[in-house]
Design brief:
Layout (H helix, E strand, L loop, with lengths): L2 H7 L7 H7 L9 H13 L3 E6 L7 H20 L4 E5 L10 H17 L4 E3 L7 H13 L5 E6 L5 H4 L5 E5 L14 H17 L3 E5 L3 H13 L7 E6 L4 H9 L4 E7 L4 H10 L3 H17 L1
Parallel strand pairs: 1-2, 1-8, 2-3, 3-4, 4-5, 5-6, 6-7, 7-8
Helix pairs in contact: 1-12, 2-11, 4-5, 8-9
The structure holds dihydroflavine-adenine dinucleotide.
Length: 301
């Protein structure tokens, strides 16, 4: 993104919430589980898999964290009842990581146990770098206790990623979305891409199942080359994309016979997720500028 565009996108918090909600509606299934289930049904009908995310992060009270875990139980039950091809993605700060590690572990264990009983799978999203160690620790603890239906996420922008991946058998690999200091993260576009492909090579070499989570055409092409060169079967990796981003590219991948999973967020806590998505949309600077300009014109007329 150009410098001016980036500066405009930084003004996003000044944009009124109803405008943010309108602009971000394509990225979110809706406020209720019914909305998410409806979207998943449509995706499945088009040959796409899904992962459902209950929106909510940085909760401030144990009951809120338990309520989010409860929503995951509801989602798992509906997926099971309707025989949908979908799993769930959880954010540990939504399950109480910043309140109490033990509470978060209990919530995660209950969701993972429920998923296991239903033959389903849980992916732990990766949040900002202050949570990386605890996220990997929790993943490793549950895994050591026998949770085979659990996966985690690694972020290619972090310098540490190549050293984190040994021993991880099911990984979603993404670029990373949080703003991290240059001491620990690559900032240049090409350096992130390079680390992404190096990490993917290493994951494939160690036999991990990888969710190739990107909409970047260069990375999609190079990732295809890597999995094909390794002789992987179509059920040994998958592509992953976000709801509302490049759906036609996902269709092409499905048509070419690849597994593609779409990340489907739903819920009432839509603001933080929406802002992150809008900041990544290359056209967003134009939308924000015209919204701000329109409001200024309105104010002086
Ligand atoms: P890039 O940002 O370069 O986008 C490539 C192209 O895709 C753009 O040029 C544009 O055409 C299109 N595009 C991308 N974003 C768009 C948008 N919002 N609106 C419109 N077009 C857009 N991050 C993290 O830190 N922790 C996590 O757990 C996850 N989980 C996750 C799951 C899944 C399924 C995906 C796909 C991504 C994540 N991410 C994530 C987000 C990830 O780290 C990254 O921020 C985004 O995927 C954008 O990076 P790309 O690789 O798509 O490249």
């Amino acid at each position: 993104m150009a410098l001016l565009d980036r500066a405009i996108v930084r003004l996003l918090p000044a944009v009124p919430k109803p405008v943010v909600q309108r602009l971000s509606s394509r990225y979110i299934a809706g406020p209720s589980l019914d909305d998410a289930i409806r979207v998943v049904r449509k995706l499945n009908a088009k040959g796409k898999l899904a992962t459902i995310d209950v929106l909510g992060e940085d909760v401030t009270a144990p009951d809120e964290a338990r309520a989010i875990a409860g929503q995951y139980h509801d989602a798992l039950a509906r997926i099971d009842e309707e025989q949908l091809d979908a799993n769930v993605s959880v954010k540990l700060t939504g399950l109480g990581l910043e309140l109490d590690y033990k509470l978060c572990r209990e919530n995660l264990e209950s969701v993972v146990g429920d998923a296991a009983a239903r033959g389903n799978f849980v992916r732990i999203d990766m949040e900002d770098s202050s949570t990386t160690d605890r996220t990997l620790q929790l993943y490793r603890e549950l895994h050591a206790d026998g949770a085979g239906n659990l996966g985690v996420v690694l972020q290619a922008y972090l310098h540490r990623t190549l050293s984190d991946l040994p021993g991880l058998d099911n990984v979603r690999l993404c670029k990373g979305i949080y703003v991290e200091p240059p001491a620990i993260a690559f900032r240049e576009f090409d350096a992130v891409r390079e680390n992404y492909l190096r990490s993917l090579q290493a994951l494939v070499a160690q036999g991990s199942y990888v969710g190739i989570a990107t909409h970047d055409e260069h990375l999609i092409g190079e990732s295809l080359r890597i999995v094909q060169a390794a002789g992987l079967e179509r059920d040994q990796y998958e592509f992953q994309m976000l709801l509302g981003v490049r759906p036609e590219r996902a269709d092409e991948l499905v048509a070419d016979g690849h597994r593609v999973r779409i990340y489907v967020p739903y819920g009432s806590h839509w603001y933080e997720y929406s802002v992150r998505r809008l900041q990544e949309n290359p056209k967003m600077a134009g939308y924000i500028a015209s919204d701000l300009f329109g409001r200024m014109r309105h104010a002086v007329s």
